[in-house]
Amino acid sequence: MARLLQSFRRILGITANSPAPSSFSRSIDTDFTIFREGDRAIIQGRVPYLTKPLQHGKRTDVARGYLNHSDIIGKRARDPIQAEKGKEHRLSFPTLDEYVVFTPRLVTPIYGADASLIVSLLDIHVVPPTEGQGDTETEPLEILEAGTGHGSLTLHLARAIQAANTNPPPIPQASQVRILEERPSYKAEDGKQQQEEKPISEKDDVFVAQKTWDEWRAQRRAVIHTVDVSAKFSAHAEQTVRGFRRGIYAGNIDFHVGAVENWIKDQVQRRSATASGIFSRRQNTVQPFLSYAILDMPSAHLRIPHVAPVLRRDGLLAVFMPSITQIGDCVQLIQKEQLPFVMERVVELGMGLSSGRLWDVRLAVKKSRADPNTWTTEGRSSEDDTEAQQTQTGKEETDSESAITPTPVEEDNVLVCRPKVGSRIVGGGFVGIWRRIEDSPKKRN
């Protein structure tokens, strides 16, 4: 009994002088210079290869031989490992980019260059928790990712907010497996349980681990809510996240299955029952709780009206689409529904011929039909203002039926999509960034 308790406490990182679970010291082994059981390694070579999780007694086939996992576990990264019936190989821990490229996928991932750029466009800033900081001092930073997919962007987002949270205890599933492996036998030879001492049941072990995990999750200062309509894709993405660097970022993420609009509705109902100030009963309105929202799904523009009410003022909305015309659909819907967003930029994450460009995507009318008194400044860039000033001062040709000017709010709208001259940004697809303002353009003075 004592041996079991000691083993369980060691797995959770608990000592006699350990603090309460909410202030755990580091319990996930973050020494990524030594390979441990369960790690995945990159076999270096002309064509790199990602191993399956390392396990004693297992092996990975290589050209002209195979590598025993037992020969890898305990070795330092890039130490030479002699293959059975083959040559020496050097192994390393996969970078996040390599991990995304070489892990099995059910859907096409957002590759490292694109995911890193999207995260940088969001301009996320977090600060480490201070000693003795109360859970209610500040509201946590919450990010919604609609469309989990492979889990690549999820991992990049989780890395961006890692500093905001304390070091997590082991996730319950991983703890349960390790406890069961180290549990001594409590069965007598006749198959009946011994009566001399009662062991802790597996149910109790899991309960303790889950309770510890839930206590830590409740005090997180930053969290990512990632939603996918496919339970299969969501489960695979969660497995992918937990498989990277011993699950160091897994605690920052909550996985959900279903339509994003249903998730938002459920969150509003849940938060309305709390006394945290998120729900105002007097006004019967929901106070926003998201700082960032990323939409990466088919027909993402149809979800923008659902996201708008729960996105905080000055929060950012990012829409990732394969086509520029789909970004145009977002522009048209925001204009039509008079949603409280202003466009900050549209970036082409193209490689090769596209070279990576900034795009000007907005609604406009022909000059011959435009009344300057009806022009709206929403979504206009400094280039637009310059064009308007040049037109008014006669510095630009006026005999241009096809020339484009800023958009009136009324009719005869034309969607304009044209590349801008900007910095080179590599990748694939298009990202539109909108900022949440206080109210819709039409309602502002």
Automatic annotation (TrEMBL):
Any Gene Ontology biological process:
tRNA methylation
Alphabetically, the GO molecular function entries are:
tRNA (adenine(58)-N1)-methyltransferase activity
Q: Which InterPro entries match?
A: SAM-dependent_MTases_sf, tRNA_MeTrfase_Gcd14
Its Gene Ontology cellular component terms are: mitochondrion; tRNA (m1A) methyltransferase complex
Q: For this protein, what is the EC number?
A: 2.1.1.220
Annotated stretches, region: Disordered: 370-411
Record's protein name: tRNA (adenine(58)-N(1))-methyltransferase catalytic subunit TRM61
Its source organism is Talaromyces atroroseus
Q: What is the lineage of its organism?
A: Eukaryota, Fungi, Dikarya, Ascomycota, Pezizomycotina
